[in-house]
Specification:
Layout lengths: L1 H29 L7 E5 H19 L2 E12 L6 E4 L6 E5 H17 L3 E12 L5 E9 L27 H11 L3 E6 L6 E8 L6
Parallel strand pairs: 2-5
Antiparallel strand pairs: 1-4, 2-3, 5-6, 6-8, 7-8
């Protein structure tokens, strides 16, 4: 009984911390005071740490779902694009590590929330184009309930949510963080009618212009 009470207290505390953090971030976005502290870091390590955190939480709740992941490098320098899929690949990016972690964590949390049974798949691809241009594409795909068609057009607006347990600020904040990096974020229902996919696209290197 005491253990159950303590775990409930921890969950409520975390929920309040997230709410306070989201309100603070929204205020910063509204008054244009959101600042980025960019650095070079290995995005693969960051994503793997997040996945392990969520896996541990799922084990505690005995959830009947799996989290899958893959990391890839796609090169388009030659006439025929080549694709490398190797567990030893590292994917580096010049960005705000804490903020990018926040965005991917939010997408992963949402995917798990709306997928009681099934899978959540995370993929990170480094696209190497011509003239040494590189972009990172991170996708979170789930087999859950999908996005309500009424919400879809306003998906990244303030206070839009399909859950009673959400503030509706997470995707709004994520959109502003991604766009502050010169990137894009989008979400869509999967073509097979099972779940949804959210993705972000970010430049991987420092902008010298």
């Amino acid at each position: 009984m005491q253990k159950e009470y303590f775990e409930r207290l921890v969950r409520n505390t975390r929920r309040l911390e997230r709410l306070a953090s989201e309100i603070l971030d929204t205020t910063k976005i509204d008054d244009q005071s959101l600042r980025l502290n960019k650095e070079n870091f290995n995005l693969k390590v960051t994503v793997l740490d997040l996945i392990q955190d969520h896996k541990r939480q799922l084990e505690k709740s005995n959830a009947s779902m799996k989290i899958l992941y893959e990391f890839m490098i796609e090169e388009e320098e030659e006439e025929i694009p080549t694709r490398k899929d190797d567990s030893f690949l590292n994917i580096f990016i010049f960005a705000d590590k804490i903020r990018i972690n926040q965005v991917i964590d939010n997408l992963l949390t949402n995917a798990i929330k709306f997928t009681e049974v099934g899978t959540v798949s995370v993929s990170v691809t480094c696209e190497k184009g011509k003239n040494h241009r590189e972009r990172i594409i991170a996708r979170v795909r789930d087999t859950g309930t999908g996005i309500d068609p009424e919400i879809l057009p306003r998906l990244f607006s303030k206070f839009v949510t399909g859950s009673d347990m959400s503030t509706g600020l997470g995707l709004f904040i994520s959109k502003n963080i991604v766009e502050a990096h010169g990137g894009k974020i989008w979400g869509e229902n999967n073509a097979d009618g099972k779940g949804a996919t959210f993705a972000i696209s970010l430049p991987s290197k420092r902008d010298n212009h």
